[in-house]
């Protein structure tokens, strides 16, 4: 058996931006967890103070502040999921557009070379035609080259229409 996992043995290193983002995520998650945990504990304790008016008033005041913070935490995490999904979709579309642009540019370069090739054929054929020996209409290769360029242009146009 050979070592099929040679590429997997290379260490994956985090960039400084990834490290900072990971640290931010960790701190955010810890703070969110602490706020939610304290809110839930205080809510449970508030029910035990039902017969004690001063304690329940104090617990309600603190719970009101914590519920606002808990709302922010919940809003952050529930709002973040769709935002991350949209960001991922936008990145995918940008990558697709970049790949399409590269593909179109490559195809344009090929077609430019084809046109140059046909132009090279026209110059000698035109000088021969001027002397009365042959015309371009009688050259089957010339007609095939023009048809190929026409077909390539149509394919390029249809590709750009499909990607929109």
Please name the defining characteristics of this protein.
164 residues; mainly alpha; 0% strand; rod-shaped
Descriptive report:
This protein has 164 residues and is an all-alpha fold. It has one domain (16-162). It has helices at 16-48, 53-130, 140-162.
Summed up:
The chain is an all-alpha fold.
Write the element-wise H/E pattern from the N-terminal end onward. Answer: HHH
Shape: rod-shaped
Number of domains: 1
User: Unreliable runs, pLDDT <50, ≥5 residues?
Assistant: none
Helix content estimate: over 70%
Structural class: mainly alpha
Query: How much is the radius of gyration in Å?
Result: 35 Å
Largest sheet: none
According to DSSP, the number of beta strands is: 0
What is the percentage of strand-forming residues?
Answer: under 5%
Distance between the termini: 48 Å
What's the pLDDT, averaged over the residues?
A: 78
Helical segment count: 3
Task: Draw up the topology in text.
Blueprint (H helix, E strand, L loop, with lengths): L15 H33 L4 H78 L9 H23 L2
Helix pairs in contact: 1-2, 2-3
């Amino acid at each position: 058996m050979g070592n099929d996992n040679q590429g997997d043995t290379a260490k994956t290193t985090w960039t400084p931006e990834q490290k900072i983002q990971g640290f931010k995520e960790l701190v955010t998650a810890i703070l969110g967890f602490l706020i939610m945990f304290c809110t839930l504990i205080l809510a449970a304790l508030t029910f035990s103070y039902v017969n004690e008016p001063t304690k329940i008033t104090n617990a309600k005041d603190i719970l009101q502040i914590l519920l606002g913070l808990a709302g922010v935490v919940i809003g952050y995490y529930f709002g973040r999921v769709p935002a991350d999904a949209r960001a991922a979709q936008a990145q995918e579309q940008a990558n697709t557009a970049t790949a399409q642009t590269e593909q179109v540019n490559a195809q344009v370069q090929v077609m430019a070379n084809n046109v140059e090739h046909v132009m090279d054929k026209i110059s000698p054929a035109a000088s021969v035609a001027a002397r009365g020996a042959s015309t371009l209409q009688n050259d089957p290769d010339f007609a095939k080259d023009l048809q190929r360029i026409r077909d390539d242009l149509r394919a390029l146009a249809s590709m750009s229409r499909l990607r929109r």
